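hey m, so remember when u said the tokens were messed up on ur end? i reran from scratch. heres the input so u can diff it against urs
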Amino acid sequence: MKYMLSHRTSYSYASSVDSAHHIAHLRAREFPGQKVTSIGIDTDPAPALAVQHIDHFGNHIDIYRIDKPHTRFDIEVHAAIDVCFPDPPPAASTPRWEEIRAALSGDGFPVPVEASEFVYESPLVPAVDALRAYGAPSFAAGRPILEAARELTSRIKADFAYEPGATDISTPLAEVFAGKSGVCQDFAHVEIAALRAHGLAAGYVSGYIRTVHSRSELALRGADASHAWVAVWCGEAAGWVHLDPTNDLVAREDHVAVAWGRDFADVSPLRGVILGGDSHTYSVGVTLVPTG
């Protein structure tokens, strides 16, 4: 699937910002199944300094320094992206989840070293006993890992209400679970915590999901904004399989990935430090439109 992407974020400040530093995870990365054919990022005001960098996880980072006083900041991404995520193997053919857990542990010497980094707690995904208990019914003894993870994904979609405004990024994970509501980043954090509680490797993927333009199309939750889902390590043969608990989907051609890390804190689309400004408001607009 070929897409045209537009992502615009606008900040309005109550008073003048004298200087600002921004860090953006907005430049979609390439990997097997995704090719970025063109991409451009524009800011207003224009930065005094703009630097590109690759972070620890292989994501593209854009760093901007703005020295000109301003009361508004706009950043807009335009990109053309080809997506064709490879189909995962049949769930029943993947290794038993206990085998994956053992490989990731490895008695201190894990076989998949890079994947093992995603087994442990992270700033926004601490260990929550209730989430280990919640995940346990999916992980019956001897069950294939992808079969177990797919059932967990389906249960989260069924058990949690998609409710924008019910949470924000500061809402603790235990509180999200207790309230059984939130948005895509909450659904992803819940699934990641349940997977990691069973010794499995799970990463947070930031990106977008296809914009729906007609009544005949399947309505996808999380469209028209940044989206998030989960990547679970299913062994050397299957690799990372991307699962979307917000929509109960295996990510294929409806998703565009931008960056991945341990949780939202690693891949926040835009963050920074400003001098001045007082209070602010912001808006985000995203369209991901198929072109062929």
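this time it looks ok to me. The chain is about 20% helix and 40% strand. if urs says something different then somethings off w ur setup not the seq
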